[in-house]
Amino acid sequence: MKISVIGAGNVGATCAQRVAEKELANEVVLVDIIDGVPQGKGLDMWESAPVEGFDTRIIGTNGYEETKDSSIVIITAGLARKPGMSRDDLRDKNAGIVKGISEQVARFSPDAKIILVTNPLDVMTYVAFKTTGFDSKNVFGQAGVLDTARYRTFLSMELGISVNDIQAMVLGGHGDDMVPLLSYTTVSGIPITQLVPQDRLDAIVDRTRKGGGEIVKFLKTGSAFYAPSAAAVEMAEAVVRDKKRLLPCSAWLSGEFGIENTYVGVPVILGKDGVEKIVEIELTDAEKEMLHASANSVKKNISQLDI
Ligand code: APR
């Protein structure tokens, strides 16, 4: 089992580390265009193996030969946001980067599952899908797991209750118009509306929508990477261990939820065959409207792509 991570920056290197520490693969291949960075970070990580007690090998490289026959490729390469930028501002530069990488993935690992992390997420997932020509169930994007993790963290802070007991889901595109589902947010089965007053819930939803921007404002020179990498690796683990997790992921829709020909965040079952099922849950009219608006904004971005 080989997992390749493309982009050895903040998100990519942390993904590689998490994959190795969880021993999700025998080999992790870390690829970047900067000479020395994937080699140095990979070796440094590998040297932590005796202390952390994992047997995963970590290979850093600037080429794709070493990625040959990867089972999973996590794409994190590309520009990250700086203060004042939206994820969409990264679109054209990152589309070129993701297209080039996808060509290499299709060439060297035609049977891989691809997990996109590069932003703007839903649009980049489409670029990889189009470029590789892979079945849509093998190309999906990380966004909902991260947005949901942020939402659950904020609810846990508000309530002083373990994150493990907070169940929630955030759908829609990975942008400020994402769709946190209040109707499916519970604390051990108790509807969230019984525990948190509406004005506080509204504030938490707003903070979730702007969660990425909050980190960018703190960091100033880049964007979040601990939570994004944890989320991407949770998806990889669902595939590697065939866990049949029900997770919100950016998936290609062909009529589900009344939406077609776009990637957007919806509940899916993730297992060894990638997106094994899109789970069409019932939504309130307001949630449906938000999901459609979010999908339309991804579609508009896709239509403006020059690839
Ligand atoms: N091939 C391989 N690596 C590349 C390529 C390419 N064509 N182009 C850029 N890279 C590498 C850069 O050299 C850099 O090491 O991608 C890495 C990006 O790392 P960071 O700048 O640290 O960005 P990071 O925080 O990891 O975010 C990467 O993930 O969450 C998203 O919005 C974020 O789009 C951004 C991406």
Number of domains: 2
Largest sheet composition: 6 strands, parallel
For the secondary structure, the number of strands is 14
Tally of alpha and pi helices: 10
Strand order, sheet with most strands:
3-2-1-4-5-6
Shape-level CATH architecture of the largest domain? Alpha-Beta Complex
What are the low-pLDDT stretches, counting only 5+ consecutive residues below 50? none
Structural class by secondary-structure content: alpha/beta
- Rg, Cα atoms, Å: 18 Å
Q: Explain this structure to me?
A:
The structure is a single chain. The protein has 307 residues and is of the alpha/beta class. It folds into two domains: 2-141, NAD(P)-binding Rossmann-like Domain (Rossmann fold); 144-303, Lactate dehydrogenase/glycoside hydrolase, family 4, C-terminal (L-2-Hydroxyisocaproate Dehydrogenase, Chain A, domain 2, Alpha-Beta Complex). It has helices at residues 10-21, 37-46, 49-52, 91-108, 121-132, 144-159, 198-209, 211-219, 226-240, 285-303, and strands at residues 2-6, 27-31, 57-61, 72-75, 113-116, 139-141, 166-167, 170-171, 179-180, 186-187, 190-191, 245-254, 260-271, 274-278. The strands form four sheets. A six-stranded parallel β-sheet has the order 3-2-1-4-5-6, with helices on both faces. Strand 8 and strand 9 (179-180) form a beta hairpin. It is globular. The mean pLDDT is 96. The structure holds adenosine-5-diphosphoribose (APR).
